[in-house]
Amino acid sequence: MSKKKFAKESATIMTEMVLPNDTNTLNNLMGGRLMHWMDVVAAIAAQKHSNRIVVTASADSISFKQPIALGNVVTLQSKVTRAFNSSMEVFIEVSAEDIPASKKTITHRAFFTFVAVDQNGKPIEIPEVVPETAEEIELFDGALRRRQLRLVLAKRMKPEDAMELKSIFNLDITK
Ligand SMILES: CC(C)(COP(=O)(O)OP(=O)(O)OC[C@H]1O[C@@H](n2cnc3c(N)ncnc32)[C@H](O)[C@@H]1OP(=O)(O)O)[C@@H](O)C(=O)NCCC(=O)NCCS
What's the Cα-to-Cα distance from 143 to each of 8, 55, 73, 74, rounded to whole Å? Predict the structure, then answer.
């Protein structure tokens, strides 16, 4: 990986209004619609970082603590936190705003992983991420352990090879 790019170069913002066709029978945003928007905003960030076609490899657990109501304006912000070989982690933050009531709440934070591929769908090397702000550095530093956790859960890494995870828990996760 020779080329480097700043984290901010991938920053993406997407704004949507919750319309009747986006809601469940309680007039709240459907979880699947939100996940679709998250996938799109994260894919754009991943494309900006890699200048490649990207595919979603995984989405870390997403929980729905509070509903987003019909008529709310949903803002999704995404940024690549760290790149590995062909894969990159993208951080997504979602906020919902009731504009007439002047109320805005952060509703979701999530991490998706994208893989840059060539025209044949084969993974291809991507630039490194250079974090600058305190938040970008914190996200960059945590990305390695999150990668190890998701690869162990996907059975793509042996627990005994997840050195970063072992060191934070200070225990032997192979037992
Ligand atoms: C993602 C995909 C390209 C990986 O291909 P592969 O042949 O398994 O390639 P590799 O084993 O070389 O892995 C490539 C990278 O993907 C990462 N990866 C693969 N599965 C992953 C997972 N579940 N979570 C996180 N990263 C994953 C690997 O860690 C590796 O990262 P690195 O190059 O930065 O080290 C392939 O599985 C694919 O095309 N999946 C379908 C993608 C798609 O269609 N998404 C939309 C779903 S409808």
Answer: 16, 19, 29, 26
Among 35, 115, 148, residue to substitute to test ligand 1 (most atoms within 8 Å of Cβ)? 115
**Domain hosting residue 29, numbered range:** 4-131
Amino acid at 115: V
> Does the residue 51 lie in any domain?
yes
Alpha carbon distance 131, 152 (integer Å): 26
pLDDT in tens, 51-96: 999 999 999 988 888 999 999 999 999 999 999 999 999 999 999 9
Q: Please state the domain count of the chain.
A: 1
Distance CA 66, CA 107 (A): 7
DSSP character string of 83-100: E-SSEEEEEEEEEEEETT
Ligand 1 atom with the shortest distance to the CA of 122: 3
CATH number of the domain at 103, please. Answer: 3.10.129.10
Q: Does residue 78 have its Cβ closer than 6 Å to ligand 1? A: no
